Amino acid sequence: MSLSWKSRAMLLHICLLLCAQGVMLQQFLLRPQNSTVLYGTDASFQAEVGGSWQVMTWQVRGFLVLTVPVDDNVTSSSEQFSARFCSAGDTRCVEFTIHNVTRRESGPIMCTVQGEYGSKTAQLYVEETGTINILGGNVTVTQDQEVAFQCVTTAWFPAPTITWTLNGHAVDSSLPNTTSVADGDSFSSTSILKLHAVGDTVVACHATVPTSTNPLSSSVFLVVVPDWTVLIAVVLSFGCSALLVLLILGIIFCYKRRKEKQSSYQDEMIRRVRTQSQISSVSVPGQSRGQVNTGFELEGQTSVRAPSELSDHSSRRETVYAMPDIINNNQAVNINVYGINSVNPSGIRKHRHVTLV
To answer: Residue 217 CB: number of other CB atoms within 10 A?
Structure first.
């Protein structure tokens, strides 16, 4: 089927119009197409328009929030939304900013240029950090005891990535057991780390989302004390051994002292016997036998013997008796007995015994 020249001319005109409209559509760009920001920060989008236009509007999740006329007289529904003109080469652009974004602004962002330019849509994603805490606080355990730490996060979007460190060193990601559950429009997570106590350790749990530059952390101290059961057993073992050694040494010492005392006692008894034997065998010089002292008188006695009876003892005589040593408490006492004869002026002889100790 052949077309007339009029039909061909009409098709050519339509193609030219469509091509011109396509060029105009290509001169309207919205960047970025997807933006992910952290809760409380700012999100910005740029609309580049080639050619002339009169009014531009911005919608957030279907609600008109800002109108930008070409004469720069911007009208905003809230201080949270603002716009400014910028330059992008040969085209004129408008930068749209959402300040202090919340989860309410998360969703489609639409820019419309009145006329033949139409509309462009981008997506805004808002991430939110919540709370993090290691339950139980600081822990004190004995050495080699197994201990479990539980880290809990709440009100995060999306579900956070949880990691652990011990004294600043990262823990293998396969060791903790981590689960996340939806809690309304946010997520809560629980991560459990089990380890054997070796020494004092700073245990830290970290949570983060992709847009977070500084992860949130919670840390506790693990204090490891010695196993008192083992320590007491070791101390008792050494103590009993030392006590047994001391007891054996004490028995040996007492046995030796007792043997020494017995030997000293026997030697002392032998010495005493020998001393008594020597004293018994020694005769007193000048005294071979006992004599009657005819001149002895008791005190208060008035009778007097005749001088003739005393003629054989006219001279003064002194007799010394040596007594044996008396041993008492390792001390020797010497006893000497002196016999003293004297004659008074009347010719009567008196005899007295004097004992010196």
So the answer is: 15
Break the chain down into helix, strand, coil percent, rounded to 5. Answer: 25, 45, 30
Residues 135, 154: Cα–Cα separation, whole Å:
13
pTM of the model: 0.56
What tokens appear for 269 in the block?
Answer: 């008894």
Nearest to 205 by CA among 171, 177, 164, 176: 164
Distances from the Cα of 173 to the Cα of 133, 147, 177, 267, 291, angstroms = 19, 18, 9, 88, 125
Q: What is the pLDDT of residues 215-233, one digit of tens each?
A: 999 999 999 998 776 667 6
Instruction: Give the list of residues 6+ apart from residue 117 with CB closer than 8 angstroms, or none.
Output: 24, 25, 27, 28, 49, 53
Distance CA(43)–CA(295), nearest Å, equals 151
Give the integer Cα–Cα distance in Å for 201 and 169: 11
Q: Which residues pair with 201 in a beta bridge?
A: 222
**Rounded-to-integer distance, Cα 205 and Cα 197, Å:** 17
Provide the token pair at 126: 């808002």
In angstroms, the CA 60 to CA 105 distance is 7
